[in-house]
Design brief:
The chain has 128 residues and is mainly α. It has one domain (28-118). The protein is 70% helix and 0% strand. The chain is built from five helices and no strands. It has helices spanning 2-7, 10-25, 33-56, 73-96, 99-117. The radius of gyration is 18 Å and the shape is flat. The N and C termini lie far apart (53 Å). This is PDE8A phosphodiesterase. One of its GO terms (biological process) is signal transduction. It holds the Pfam family PDEase_I. Keywords: Hydrolase, Metal-binding. Residues 1-119 form the PDEase domain.
Length: 128
């Protein structure tokens, strides 16, 4: 009933659509772990290439944390989840009940935290 009330307002429907688009755009930490790792690698490589190009051209480096020689991908993922994802998806979950996404988010956070606790900077632990 409360969702119906929210959806009766055109302004609220627009806000919900904007939230959906934003959540979809940054939802990588809410995907199954293999997809999350794959896309974290792709996004990191994109940022590394940007930083490399900025350095090559003598431009200010926009994201110095994405220097491929010193970046910790697990730390970057943990920060991203802490600063952008958790609160947004907690709010979305309260509205739409998304247990699978929230479970993936929790598992993925623990995965990145486990790598960081081991002082690893890569997408995956080394082969045993």
């Amino acid at each position: 009933e409360s969702i119906k009330t929210v959806l009766t307002s055109p302004e609220n429907r627009i806000l919900i659509k904007r939230m959906l688009i934003k959540c979809a755009d940054i939802s990588n930490p809410c995907r199954p772990i293999e997809q999350c790792i794959e896309w974290a690698g792709r996004i990191s490589e994109e940022y590394f290439a940007q930083t490399d190009e900025e350095k090559r051209q003598g431009l200010p480096v926009v994201m110095p944390v994405f220097d491929r020689n010193s970046c910790s991908i697990p730390k970057s993922q943990i920060s991203f989840i802490d600063y952008f994802i958790t609160d947004m998806f907690d709010a979305w979950d309260a509205f739409a009940d998304l247990p699978n996404l929230m479970q993936h988010l929790d598992s993925n956070f623990k995965y990145w935290k486990g790598l960081d606790d081991r002082k690893l900077r890569s997408l995956r632990p080394p082969p045993e």
